[in-house]
Amino acid sequence: MTRPTTHRLRVRGWLQALAPLHVGGAGGDPNGALTVAIDGQGRPYVPGTSLAGALRTLLHPASGPDGGPRGERANSLWGYAEPGTQEGTVSRFVVHDSLLATTTDLTDDAQTAAPLPTARLERRHSVGIDRHTGTAAPGILHSRTVVPQGTFLRLELDLGSTTAQLADDRAVVRHLLALLREGRLRIGAARTRGLGQLALVEDHTDVHEQDLSTPNGLLQALTAPGGGTPWPRTDWAKEKAPADGLLRVHVDWSPSAPVMVRSGTDGFTVDAVPLATATAPDRVALALPGSALKGALRSHAERIERTARALDAPTAEPGAGVPDRAAAFRRQLDQLPAIRLLFGTAPDTGPGGIGALTVDDCTTEQTIPAADWQRVYDPPGEDGSTAHLTALLPYGLERADHVAVDRWTGGAADGRLYSVLEPHGLTWRPLTLTVDLDRLALRDADHQHAAQALFMFLLRDLEAGRISLGYATNRGLGDITVHRITLTLPTDPDPVELADFLTGPRAKDLTHTWRAYLDGTL
């Protein structure tokens, strides 16, 4: 049944993708890339159901005081249904589908003027690395289509209210807008691996309040610009979001050797091409995706704990088939409690769930015109030359040829010549990592501090240059120099240097917890 409504709070505006985004759609090749959602007119969009679920979780986190997304307060706003019964209520929030766009322009009838063309979509590949062989784990390869960062999402939502509820509902809307303005909304797949972060475009967002209890109010809702009485932006924009339970880590670094993640698409005249992502309709930047960064950190974190425990990773029997080898890989991911807490695990291997650690994409400061980048995929000249690649030299990209040497002849091995488009002299943005301390406590209160201790070991080794990033790290690429690591704790807005934290009293407590965790006395 419907809810009684005498007032309505209406939000119309835009969200902007601060990172690539994937909200999956139906159909497509089951053996191909996971597709994004496409509406009936062939335009990429985010369904209102997906956006409503993410907004509900944002407003009512599991660690919050109102019982989380399924708590009484959340149910009263967003509705609920009791499985197997007819008990439930409808949502007082109405969240519309969100069309993706390249600009915030609207048509005369308030429709999106510049829908995102499907040609602008990008593709990301992910693979699991077997801890024994160091190569791709069988059956653990997938790819997904993603919406590029910078894309705009149309935001249209209404909150039905009554006179008795109006004051509380106004506070709810202000609180939601404050969270969106600070970029706390993440939606879609791979949210802890660099995808899905959205932020409110404040200057292009308006809030109107409608009084539906009187004839004059109804007439105003139908005829006034925006459909009601506007809220002054100074009223809702000054709302501050409450502190969250996130430990934020900022890593300033530079490459001491070429650093890149290989794209899944080879060039025409070069074999290994760095992964690039669009930063604007006509420009791209090289990218280290959060999935690759998180994978490198997870592998090193496992190395730390397995070394401390003298514990080898599970492996399949010699001659085992692909299903058994894939199952052995999943057991590797599930074996260590602290690793599961930080990095997550698949539901079919144990107490599944996303990890507490989020690693964002890292891109170069320099951007490249998309037309110049496209030259990577141009064919060679009539004489077989690669002169067209010289257009990329000013951006620090140069082709390097490599060959395997035959151990008997001492000459080039047949069919073993390959080339890499190596990035030199590029400046990278800082690495950004966050750890949800509340999630650690909720998932496993006994091991939460051991997971924090392991994370500090990981940062220590990263600062010491013991972790390489990206492609061909065993062949001269991927070495980095870390200049500074700063931590911002949820209880203190002032950043602290990692070295200072590791010599402080909190680190000593974590050390004792780590020892108890390894001894089995925790």
Keywords:
single chain, 522 residues, alpha+beta, 5-stranded antiparallel β-sheet, 26% helix, 26% strand, globular
Question: What's the arrangement of secondary structure elements?
Answer:
Blueprint: E1 7-17, E2 45-46, H1 48-59, H2 72-78, E3 80-81, E4 88-89, E5 93-95, E6 98-101, E7 122-129, E8 136-146, E9 152-161, H3 166-181, E10 185-186, E11 197-200, E12 206-211, H4 215-223, E13 229-230, H5 233-236, E14 246-255, E15 276-280, E16 283-288, H6 290-309, H7 322-334, H8 337-343, E17 344-345, E18 353-354, E19 357-359, E20 362-363, E21 368-369, H9 370-373, E22 397-405, E23 412-423, E24 431-436, H10 437-443, H11 448-463, E25 480-488, E26 496-497, H12 498-502, H13 505-519
Antiparallel strand pairs: 1-9, 1-11, 1-12, 2-6, 3-4, 5-9, 6-9, 7-8, 10-11, 12-13, 14-24, 14-25, 15-16, 16-20, 16-21, 17-18, 19-24, 22-23, 25-26
